[in-house]
Amino acid sequence: SSGINAEYGYHPKSVKACIAKLKEEKESALKQKLSVIVSQLKTTDMRSARALQLAQEKGCGAWLTALPLASMGYVMNKQEFRDSIKLRYGWKIADIPSYCVCGERNDIDHTLTCKTGGHVIFRHNKIRDVNANFLRQVCHNVVVEPELLPIESANLQGGQGNQADKARLDISATGLWGPFQKTMMDVRIFHPYAKTYKDQKISDVYSRHEKEKQRSYLHRVLQIEKASFTPLVYSTNGGMAKEARRFHKKVAHMIADKTRESYSDVINCMRTKLTFAMLRSVLISVRGSRGKTTKAPETPLSYVSFNLIPEIQQYESY
After folding, report:
1. What's 168's DSSP letter?
2. Helix, strand or coil for residue 62?
3. Contact indicator for 251, 176 with CB cutoff of 8 Å
4. Which residues pair with 143 in a beta bridge?
5. HEC profile for 77-121?
């Protein structure tokens, strides 16, 4: 402490500088230690190594530090919390069915990619709606699933994108990147542990999905819609690609300016809402029912006696 006092003194600015320096040194030491652990795991357990890398992504752990506010939907029961921890670190969840309704062998990777039961669409739509609600606070003419204008000429420049009639994107809004500029967005969510991405860097996977979205819609949106296009790519662990991060930062700055709140508080709230939406949709995929439920036959109300005295014509002996 004497060395610190001699170097910084007791001035408040010096104390802040000292605290910042200590935090920086501590963070550097922890990152070094983590790097060693990850490099060791890569030779023995690639799944755990990837889980540690994914856990470091911005906003992925927001649900762990959020206050358990029921009004915000930030409350989980014991099973949900345990499942969430296991999903975060790539651990096996033992008490799930051995086989999926589709007939395939069931595990976490299958249950988060299987389209049976509609859970994949539900997850996509939930993240779409959360982003649309963010935009409604600061943008105009926010539309969910806007239909694209038809391509009337064969002079569409560039690529073999989606040229189907009545094609739709996920969100459109006016005023995001410019006062009167229309922006169209499309959401994609992928599972980072899927076999397709086994030997790929997570940054390359994000980039791949962004480029696929751009190939499908960028030229059509620019030339036909006269709008800008932003792909919103997320992973099931709560991470997001470069364009999605840029999108959320922009929206957070706009909300902070409008409400006169701190940018750090706004972006933290947005990340928490997004992470909980993703986490809950993933938990539904893990624990939810995928089969078709058959309802027990019900007697129509027109045949029911409301005073609980059966009508005489209902007796077989009549």
Report:
1. B
2. helix
3. yes
4. 172
5. CHHHHHHHHHHHCCCCCCCCCCECCCCCECCHHHHCCCCCCCHHH
Average pLDDT of the residues in 49-66 = 88
* DSSP collapsed to 3 states, 196-222: HHCCCCHHHHHHHHHHHHHHHHHHHHH
* Contacts for 142 with CB less than 8 Å, ≥ 6 apart: 132, 135, 136, 171, 172, 173
What average pLDDT is seen over the chain? 85
Dihedral angle computed from the Cα positions of residues 194, 196, 198 and 200, in that order, rounded to the nearest 10 degrees = -130
pLDDT value of residue 13: 74
The whole-number pLDDT of residue 311 equals: 53
Which is nearest to 189 in space by CA: 238, 130, 248, 252? 238
Distance from C-alpha of 283 to C-alpha of 189, rounded to nearest angstrom: 15
Return the exposure string of 157-190: e unless at least 16 CB atoms fall within 10 Å of the residue's CB, then b: eeeebbbeeebebbbbbbbbeeeeebbbbbbbbb
Beta carbons within 10 angstroms of residue 298's beta carbon: 7
Q: Give the chain's radius of gyration (CA, Å).
A: 26
* Statement: residue 314 has pLDDT above 70: no
Q: Kindly indicate the confidence band of residue 195, based on its pLDDT and cuts at 50, 70 and 90.
A: confident
Secondary structure string (H, E, C) spanning 299-316: CCHHHCCCCCCCCHHHCC
Q: If DSSP codes are grouped into helix, strand and coil, which group holds residue 290?
A: coil
Q: What is the pTM of this model?
A: 0.80
CA distances from 17 to 7, 9, 12, 149, 262 (A): 11, 11, 9, 56, 22
Query: How many Cα atoms within 13 Å fall on the side-chain side of residue 155?
Result: 2
The DSSP result for 271-282, as a single string, is HHHHHHHHHHHH
